[in-house]
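Predict fold of GTP-binding protein REM 1; 195 aa.
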Amino acid sequence: SPWQGSCCSQTTNISTETMDIAKYRIVLLGESGVGKTALVSQFMTSEYMNTYDASLDDEFGEKTVSILLDGEESEMVFIDHPSSEMSVENSLSTYEPHAAVVVYSVVDRATFKAAEEILNYLWRESYTQEKTVILVGNKVDLARARVITNTEGKSLAASRDCKYIETSSGIQHNVDELLVGILKQIRLRETREKK
Ligand code: GDP
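Predicted 3D structure, encoded as tokens:
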């Protein structure tokens, strides 16, 4: 498993009593240039994808995809947070996302610092305690230029009680794993809350 953290290997028992397709909103946070757009584009080509209707995409960069996982279909709406125009705070209150994916580039320390600040904010606002937060170290294909080690990323995530995964949208490394991980974490939390 590419996942490092406490509870990702747990098996989930999904209740199928409802016929409605669950719809989840996921906001992507992080500095410009870290690969958020590239990751979401890769999600649209996933083998778990059931349907992708481009007409559902809105003009603000929201992409809606239907994912079939463990025999259950869910709609995932990915919102590429426009960091220049909107604060993280605004983004959370506007979209009320089920999950926040905080992306940095492993070859750029400033983006790691920015990710840390976002995680701190999510923690202070109790978002982390209530929703799914995943820290993503992207661009691992650029191995020789890497400045943030796996250990450093992992320990930041652990200190803020969130999941950690390293990806490359360039060479499609762990991109499906990230997609599935987001959905599994959201479902896990929902199952726990229903109890
Ligand atoms: P965003 O501003 O966070 O949405 O970043 P983009 O998805 O637009 O990516 C910024 C630049 O980084 C583009 O030139 C991408 O091709 C490049 N990029 C994105 N992901 C990767 C990756 O995993 N590896 C490499 N080498 N380049 C990447």
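The chain has a mean pLDDT of 88.
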